[in-house]
């Protein structure tokens, strides 16, 4: 749905998952999960099915706490070090990526996609659910470029098979592009990026990954962002993602 259509929907009520995303609680998909788990209520009545409309006069709560749509949109690019978890909380008390900027950002932000605990590099955080959907959804075909470093030499024939489509278990993985940088390192470009894709693909060929480092998301790179630091996106950078999505 376009933003113009959503503005029209404001007059007759927003879908609950859209409202939650605008409150900075996550992407629409993750907000649908909150609803399905029974954690959300409208005017005191629990709602378990996405799609319920929220009117301006309604009171929406999450786990009994009132929430309201945020007015200020925030978009940041973080250079995540290895050993930080992309999550809101962790029962094992591991370091969280959000802790790297929490003292400097007042708004509640969520990660766009994810990098696993051992992976490092560029990851975006926002409170804009629509932006998160555009960056993350495979249909937008936003390029994500990774540097991988391995314990043994990488066979280019293996990368060619990966580019044409490689089945691992019940899942077919396919990279958009690759470039060998040396016997033990390569640049891999993905437009979908399934869960732990690079680790699953390389491990399936008994190639141990020593490092997975994301260098780029669309036009955004790590340039000027030291490890463990972040910067805010410019209006032009944010606009690129919305314009890219509308052009697909």
Average pLDDT level:
89
Helix content: 10-25%
End-to-end distance, in Å?
13 Å
The CATH class designation of the largest domain is Alpha Beta
Query: Architecture of the largest domain, according to CATH?
Result: 2-Layer Sandwich
Number of helical regions: 7
Topology as H/E string? HEHHEEEEEEEEHEHEEEEHEEEH
Let me know the CATH homologous superfamily of the largest domain.
Pseudouridine synthase I, catalytic domain, N-terminal subdomain
Cα-atom radius of gyration: 20 Å
Overall body shape: elongated
| Structural domains: how many | 3
Sheet/helix structural class: alpha+beta
Low-confidence spans: pLDDT under 50, at least 5 residues?
1-11
* Number of E strands: 17
Beta-sheet strand percentage? 25-35%
Biggest sheet record: 9 strands, mixed
Topology of this protein?
Layout: H1 3-9, E1 14-15, H2 16-22, H3 28-36, E2 40-42, E3 45-47, E4 53-54, E5 60-62, E6 65-67, E7 75-80, E8 110-112, E9 120-126, H4 129-136, E10 144-150, H5 156-164, E11 166-168, E12 171-173, E13 177-182, E14 185-190, H6 197-203, E15 209-217, E16 220-221, E17 230-232, H7 235-246
Parallel strand pairs: 9-15
Antiparallel strand pairs: 1-4, 2-3, 2-5, 5-6, 7-9, 7-17, 8-9, 10-14, 10-15, 11-12, 13-14, 15-16
Helix pairs in contact: 2-3
């Amino acid at each position: 749905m376009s933003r113009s259509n959503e503005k029209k929907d404001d007059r007759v009520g927003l879908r609950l998952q859209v409202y939650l995303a605008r409150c900075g609680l996550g992407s629409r998909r993750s907000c649908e999960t909150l609803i399905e788990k029974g954690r959300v209520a409208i005017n005191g009545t629990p709602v378990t099915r996405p799609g319920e409309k929220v009117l301006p006069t309604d009171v929406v709560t999450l786990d009994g706490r009132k929430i309201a749509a945020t007015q200020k949109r925030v978009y940041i690019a973080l250079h995540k070090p290895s050993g930080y978890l992309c999550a809101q909380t962790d029962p094992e008390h591991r370091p969280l990526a959000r802790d790297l900027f929490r003292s400097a950002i007042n708004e509640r932000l969520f990660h766009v996609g994810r990098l696993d605990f051992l992976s490092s590099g560029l990851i975006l955080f926002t409170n804009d659910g629509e932006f998160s959907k555009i960056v993350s959804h495979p249909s937008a075909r936003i390029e994500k470029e990774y540097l991988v470093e391995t314990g043994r030499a990488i066979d280019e024939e293996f990368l060619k098979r990966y580019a044409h489509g490689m089945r691992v278990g019940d899942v077919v993985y396919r990279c958009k592009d690759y470039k060998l940088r040396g016997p033990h390192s390569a640049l891999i470009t993905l437009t979908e990026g399934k869960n732990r894709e690079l680790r699953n693909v390389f491990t399936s060929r008994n190639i141990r990954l020593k490092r997975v480092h994301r260098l780029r998301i669309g036009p955004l790179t790590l340039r000027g962002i030291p490890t463990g630091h972040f910067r805010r996106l410019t209006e032009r950078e944010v606009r690129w993602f919305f314009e890219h999505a509308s052009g697909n």
